[in-house]
Amino acid sequence: MKYLKECIFYRDCPVFRDGYERHMTPGMTERQVEKMSSILEQLYAGDLAPAERNIQGNEEYDRLCRESVQEIREFSKKLDEQSRKAFEQLLEHYLELTYIEKSQTFCDGFRLGAGIMCEVFQGRPAADGWQ
């Protein structure tokens, strides 16, 4: 954590800034925030659960969620009991697949980000003329 805070990207990078600002509450000093547990400590203690974070502040997502829930309710009402159970099973399988896809995407993104940071700290030249 010490090296992360010294990194120029710590407060300028949206990913780090999001994590930093989420733990800042009104009236807290940076020193108080620094005393809080590190991301690894939070992860170990079970206080950090990326899979449980909700999407917030995205009006299109919120609207589509409301519409989807309403459409599912309306469609379910039209089904007989056997068809409703089959539909619920179909939805359950879809949610399981979505969870697996989100988990894989998270892992892939984390690996990519870690790889980028490794290149940055190793001082390797950037591709295509990026400095």
Quick recap:
The chain is an all-alpha fold and 131 residues long.
Describe this entry's structure for a reader.
This protein is mostly helical and 131 residues long. It has 2 domains: 1-50, no CATH class; 80-123. It is 71% helix and 0% strand. It has 7 helices and no strands. The protein has helices spanning 2-6, 9-12, 14-23, 30-35, 39-45, 59-77, 81-122. It is elongated. The chain starts with a helix and ends in a 9-residue tail after the last helix. InterPro entries: DUF6809. It holds the Pfam family DUF6809.
Keywords:
elongated, mainly alpha, DUF6809, 7 helices, 131 residues, single chain, disordered N terminus
Question: Separation of termini?
Answer: 26 Å
Percentage beta strand: under 5%
Q: Could you say how many structural domains there are in total?
A: 2
Low-confidence stretches: 1-25
Mean pLDDT: 75
Counted beta strands? 0
What's the tally of helices? 7
Structural class: mainly alpha
Query: Which range best describes the helical content: under 10%, 10-25%, 25-40%, 40-55%, 55-70% or over 70%?
Result: over 70%
The major pleated sheet works out as: none
**Overall radius of gyration:** 21 Å
* SSE order: HHHHHHH
Tell the overall outline: elongated
Topology:
Layout: H1 2-6, H2 9-12, H3 14-23, H4 30-35, H5 39-45, H6 59-77, H7 81-122
